[in-house]
Specification:
By secondary structure, this protein is mainly alpha-helical. Helices cover 64% and strands 10% of the residues.
Length: 302
């Protein structure tokens, strides 16, 4: 598996902190401006910006918690909190998208007057801040599902700001009031689509699913290919954290191979680490004469 290039933790925290501050300021400005301008699209963009700020707050807290060492209460450590944070962020985005859809549909039936200039100016400021925030978190998003969720919040917001600018321009030029709820629907649809697209991988990790880039059959085959191994059962492959696959299984040794049991176990661990990047392994060895009877190949009780 490819290595991951990590950013210094303190530097990353400063970036996230700066992104939170500018998004909160932008949210206040857009909500006030949206109310004064009568623009649902601008308020939609503001609500999305608020969700960006909250996403970044959750991401910031999760980064801090994830660094705590393992203890008796949390023997696997706290790293998975970042995956939980991503789930919270995507779920929030879906709820926001549904709410904006509801509001936009009502506006389609009852268009309201909109101050186009105020919409264009505030959306332009929002676009600049969205791009700046996305740049702050882009490099960190490559290695963290938690930061990636926050980054995608901002990317969606940048697209929304462009749409709001277009809406404000059309209102100024042609007084097309329906364009405001129409753009709101576009923003909401994009938010919902993006969130459902990303949330699946997060749920997969929390459900202890196998990594997308690893096949359990391939891992089992690689172990059985070692000389002295006759069978593998009760096999589990999951992700302890986003970049930490784990494996456990019962491995049956051929008769007469028990004297080489320790060497075979080390060979299995080395193969899994070198070939698949799996460095957390739990292997229970069985001799052929006393192997589990009618054992499940994948999963099942030990």
């Amino acid at each position: 598996m490819a290595g991951h290039h990590h950013i210094d933790a303190d530097a990353g925290d400063r970036r996230v902190g700066a992104a939170i501050a500018v998004n909160l300021l932008l949210t206040v400005a857009q909500i006030v401006g949206g109310i004064l301008a009568g623009s649902m699209a601008l308020i939609a963009d503001a609500i999305h910006n608020l969700s960006d700020a909250m996403a970044l707050v959750i991401a910031f807290a999760a980064r801090k918690i994830a660094r705590r060492p393992a203890n008796a209460e949390m023997p696997f450590g706290y790293g998975r909190i970042e995956v939980v944070a991503a789930l919270i962020n995507y779920t929030t985005l879906i709820i926001i998208g549904i709410y904006l859809t509801y509001e936009a549909v009502w506006r389609l039936f009852d268009p309201q007057p909109v101050d186009g200039w105020l919409v264009v100016i505030l959306a332009g400021v929002a676009l600049i801040i969205d791009i700046a925030t996305a740049m702050l978190t882009f490099s960190m998003s490559k290695n963290s599902v938690n930061i990636r969720a926050a980054f995608l919040h901002n990317l969606a917001d940048a697209a929304a700001s462009v749409a709001v600018i277009i809406a404000g321009t059309l209102i100024l030029l042609y007084d097309w009031r329906l364009v405001d709820p129409a753009v709101t629907l576009l923003i909401a649809g994009y938010i919902i689509w993006m969130s459902f697209k990303e949330i699946g991988g997060v749920i997969r990790i929390l459900m202890l699913g196998a990594p997308d880039d690893l096949a359990l059959d391939d891992v089992i085959a690689a172990i059985k290919d070692l000389d002295g191994v006759t069978d593998v059962h009760h096999a589990y492959l999951w992700q302890m954290q986003e970049h930490a696959p784990a494996f456990q299984a019962h491995v049956v040794l051929r008769g007469g191979e028990w004297v080489a049991a320790d060497a075979l176990k080390q060979a299995i661990k080395a193969r899994l680490a070198d070939k698949f990047g799996i460095r957390h392994t739990t292997i229970e060895l069985e001799c052929a004469q006393r192997a589990c009877v009618d054992a499940h190949r994948i999963g099942g009780m030990g």
